[in-house]
User: Fold this.
Amino acid sequence: MTRVLVVDDEPQLVRALVINLKARGYEVDAAPDGTGALKLAAARHPDVVLLDLGLPDMDGADVIRGLRGWTRVPVIVLSARHASDEKVQALDAGADDYVTKPFGMDELLARLRAAVRRAEPAAGPGEGAVVVTDAFTVDLAAKKVRRADADVRLTPTEWHLLEVLVRNRGRLVTQTQLLQEVWGPAYRTETNYLRVYMAQLRRKLEADPSRPRHFITEPGMGYRFEA
Assistant:
């Protein structure tokens, strides 16, 4: 049974989440602050964390960093903060998804299910290393891409960018994360690099580059690969 840790200081919202989650077969723990959340996470080992950013004792981003010191448990941020820079800060700290309050319960549950699926144990070396879409196939182990039964020639930078996105498929990867991973720490603000190289990947791999299905832009935040 999937265990969910709810971290929020709004009692009414916590009650609503606990009722809805338990009705759908989840086990639920709840904490009203960051200190309690970190203690509960260590004691109960949740499968996913629903985390408010505005906690009474510490910022939610600090809770994420505390968790990331020892666990890769999926963290879905729930917050009334709408500013893109605050969302990016939470994602850079290690959050897996971000849901803005108020939200629909169906949407939240769908995102929760997706986060749990993505966190399932990865296959061993050489297994499950091929990602297939309706337009192209990526072989991570062989470092090859095929489209229409032909190899697609990618530059080393294009491949590195593709690899980071594919290995995080279904997750939003922030601009800062991509720039640091592909180009290095000195390029953390060079967002124009991403626009250029994402356009090249789309031209080479998308059926319709003007309406991408696989390389999705999250404006002001980053990119997401969907298989």
